[in-house]
Amino acid sequence: MTTSKPQDLHLPARNPLPLSSSQEAQVQELYHKRVRGYCANEIRDFASCATNRTISATWACRRERLSMNSCMILHATQMEKDAAREEWFATRDLRQRQREEKELRKKEQEKFHRDWWNLPPLKDEETQRSQGGDSKEDG
């Protein structure tokens, strides 16, 4: 009697966590970017052949198109989708930090703009000042 290890079992996806539709779109975008990266030379060859052509690209660039399509099919696998999904999860914290930094820069720029033009402070700025000062001093 042999026992199989959990990693020997074949699962349809290595990351079964459900994602929102926008998150799935980000994973798909990453997946397509990875596949296009593998086939960059074939895509470049087809694009250079198809430049300045319309209908004639269909038969004039047939060899390049078939080469590009076969490369894309070869690399467009479930393993590649799983790898893109893992990469998305791995870079999740980085994207969160980037969003927070962007929001902080935006608030600083809005404050500078209001100070520069002597505009009245926003309600949340008034509340912050009445409660004891800037958030920069707190954190």
Q: Spans with pLDDT under 50 lasting ≥5 residues?
A: 135-139
Give the percentage of residues in beta strands.
under 5%
Give the fraction of residues assigned to helices: 55-70%
* Structural class computed from helices and strand pairing: mainly alpha
Largest sheet descriptor: none
Average of pLDDT: 84
Globular, elongated, flat, extended or rod-shaped: what is the shape?
Answer: elongated
* Rg, alpha carbons: 25 Å
Give the terminus-to-terminus CA distance. Answer: 60 Å
In total, the number of strands is: 0
Q: Give the helices and strands as they follow along the chain.
A: HHHHHHHH
Structural account:
There is one protein chain. The protein is mainly alpha-helical and 139 residues long. 70% of the residues lie in helices and 0% in strands. The chain contains 8 helices and no strands. It has helices at 21-38, 40-50, 57-60, 62-75, 78-90, 92-116, 123-130, 135-138. Helix 1 packs across helix 5 and helix 2 runs antiparallel to helix 4 (62-75). The longest helix has 25 residues, at 92-116. The protein is elongated, with a radius of gyration of 25 Å. The N and C termini lie far apart (60 Å). 5% of the residues are buried. Residues 135-139 have low confidence and may be disordered.
